Amino acid sequence: MKAIVQDKYGSADVLELKEIDKPVVNDDDVLVRVRAASVNPLDWHIMRGRPFIVRPTSGLRKPKLRIRGVDVAGQVEAVGKEVTQFQPGDDVFGWCNGAFAEYVSAGENNFVTKPASLSHEQAAAVGVAGFTAVQGLRDKGQIESGQKVLVIGASGGVGTFAVQIAKSLGAEVTAVSSTTNVDMVRSIGADHVIDYTQEDFPQGSPRYDLIFQLAGTASPSTLRRVLTPKGTLVLSSGMGRFAGIDRIVKALATSPFVGQKLVTWVAVPNHEDLVYLSELCESGEVTPVIDRSFVLSEVPEAMRYVEEGHTQGKTVITM
User: Fold this and answer.
1) Contact, 318 vs 294, CB < 8 A?
2) Which residues neighbour 96 within 8 Å (Cβ) at sequence distance 6 or greater?
3) What's the confidence (pLDDT) of residue 243?
4) Residue 243, class by beta-carbon neighbours within 10 Å (0-12 exposed, 13-18 middle, 19+ buried)?
5) Phi and psi of 293, rounded to 5°?
6) What is the rounded distance in angstroms from the CA atom of residue 174 to the CA atom of residue 185?
7) HEC profile for the chain?
8) Integer Cα distance of 301 and 74 in angstroms
9) Rounded CA gap, 235 and 237, in Å?
10) What are the tens digits of pLDDT across the range 33-67?
């Protein structure tokens, strides 16, 4: 099969399209012919091996896993003898290692049936971004219906899911984005939009019950000023995402001394949340936002594009 292979850390130039063996299918595994995958900040952090704190788990001198990519959608090609949920021909999506390839193999609980309403490209966009948004809002933010919620970085991969999920849970959502993304975040359900290039945010802002910070340079102490006295500031570290470490450390150091709740975490993929995300997509409450599509051979270009940090929604890889 064809796959994008990485044998050393570095820029996107270290990624090469090669012919390698298909993955092994164990008794409890599902072999999936990949139709689409998506790119996350997690992928280029590991590609570069930066910051260096990623290396104890990803590999000290070179990546332990040669193929990047976590989010995937496709068709079941074969199943192990202990698999009960799927059979060959089923359309599925989920997460696994090595998604930038023609085939992947992982445990059956890594996948769910793809809703007919979603294309493979849309389904592949769910994974990491969806897990991060759900766990940040519901589990860490403990969002409640009727609350005022602020999403900073609303036009990105996680942000577009966060706006829609917060709305599905009954919140009044204010989205922070740049001028070029204002119309898009309104179209996915934001009740109010702050254009940070035009407004002196967060000066003069109303108070929010929950702030979900996915981007921007505002410090925890600044954001606390626009939180309610018992409000919650959730700082996303994604699924192994390392941007904004400085503000996360500051928040954790400050949290014990203030009435407001300041939390961060690392998102963990799991079957229960994948089912929940699938149901939201099937009901139409959440629709993945696709920015650009690249073919498998263009993964290096796609990684460069995502690394620039200006994507509107998700960037996907098609086979």
Assistant:
1) yes
2) 32, 70, 72, 104, 105, 106, 110
3) 47
4) middle
5) -120, 145
6) 10
7) CEEEEECCCCCHHHEEEEECCCCCCCCCEEEEEEEEEEECHHHHHHHHCCCHHHHHHHCCCCCCCCCCCCEEEEEEEEECCCCCCCCCCCEEEEECCCCCECEEEEEHHHEEECCCCCCHHHHHCCHHHHHHHHHHHHHHCCCCCCCEEEEECCCCHHHHHHHHHHHHCCCEEEEEECHHHHHHHHHCCCCEEEECCCCCCCCCCCCEEEEEECCCCCCHHHHHCCEEEEEEEEEECCCCCCCCHHHHHHHHHHHHHCCCEEEEECCCCCHHHHHHHHHHHHHCCCCCCEEEEEEHHHHHHHHHHHHCCCCCCEEEEEC
8) 22
9) 7
10) 999 999 999 898 899 887 767 777 777 788 889 99
Cβ atoms within 10 A of the Cβ of 65, count? 12
Rounded Cα gap, residues 190 and 165, in angstroms? 11
Region 69-83: mean pLDDT is 98
Residue pair 133/34 in contact (Cβ under 8 Å)? The answer is no
Enumerate the β-bridge partners of residue 112.
93
Which of 8-22, 116-130, 131-145, 190-204 comes out lowest in average pLDDT?
190-204
d(CA 18, CA 51): 27
